[in-house]
Design goal:
117 residues; Arc Repressor Mutant, subunit A; 85% helix; mainly alpha; single chain
Length: 117
Amino acid sequence: MAYLRRSVVNGSRSVLRHRTVEHAKLAPLAADAARTTGPSAEALALDELGNAAMLRCLERLPRRQREVLILRYYLDLSEAQIADTLDIAPGSVKAHASRGLANLRAQLATLDREDRP
């Protein structure tokens, strides 16, 4: 039994040492990558349209579509996590996301046409 305990402790320590070394070597690389990459597509869309316009369009969506899109794009949850959070099937998450995005596209296209002279 002592052999098993010692093996588990040594294995745990080895994993922790490995994580420390990985973090020390990868942290500067991640910081460089963050500086060299551009803004995300969501950030560009919000900058172009303005936060207020996007939020108004989101408010017009049906509740479930709005929830799925917010959990997916603002909280960056996976389909499985969204399904667990909302207590619905993963297929329903896909359907609500697809319909919600289509609805948002239509609303944004309408806004775009209204803004043109």
